[in-house]
Design a protein that fits this description.
Helix content: 10-25%
Shape: globular
CATH class: Alpha Beta
Number of helices: 5
Length: 157
């Protein structure tokens, strides 16, 4: 299974930028932008930059590795590399890819949250391992992304 990356993205006001996902015949959930590593991606960080442009029309600045999450998914083990980053610019008109070409994929509504645990725990964050990580570390993450070091050792969760 190809690994994937996700970006814990903060704007200049330290708000977390996430997606509210509204998918036909599914309960509403929230997630952060990201996706699978493609063969043409030079690195995990390059994947992150590509995914931010595709899903948000966003350019991000400093990228900080936060944690690697592994969890069971569809009978296999999924690995997601989570990075913290800062928003430099965002133009929704630049969003592109299958998420936006196929209406059956649902809606990707951009939401900005204050960096407080209750903002995380009051929502169904997918994957759940990411929601747990964010709830535990959300208060320290905005400063961490600015400073450039993880709140805890990178490892499996």
């Amino acid at each position: 299974m190809r690994p994937s990356v996700r970006g814990v993205l903060f704007d200049s006001d330290d708000r977390l930028i996430i997606f509210k996902r509204i998918v036909p015949e599914r309960d509403v959930y929230y997630t952060v932008p990201g996706g699978h590593v493609e063969p043409s991606d030079a690195s995990l960080e390059a994947t992150l930059h590509r995914e931010m442009m595709e899903e948000l029309g966003a350019v991000v600045g400093q990228v900080v590795p936060l944690v690697r999450l592994t969890y069971p998914w569809r009978g296999r083990t999924k690995t997601q590399h989570i990075y913290g980053c800062r928003l430099v610019s965002m133009d929704p008109a630049l969003r592109h890819g299958p998420e936006f070409d196929d209406p059956s994929r649902g809606v990707y509504e951009v939401v900005r949250l204050e960096p407080r645990p209750e903002e995380i725990t009051s929502r169904h964050i997918v994957p759940e391992a990411l929601g747990s990580y964010l709830a535990e570390h959300i208060r320290s993450l905005p400063a961490l992304v600015t400073r450039g070091g993880p709140p805890s050792p990178t490892g499996d969760r």
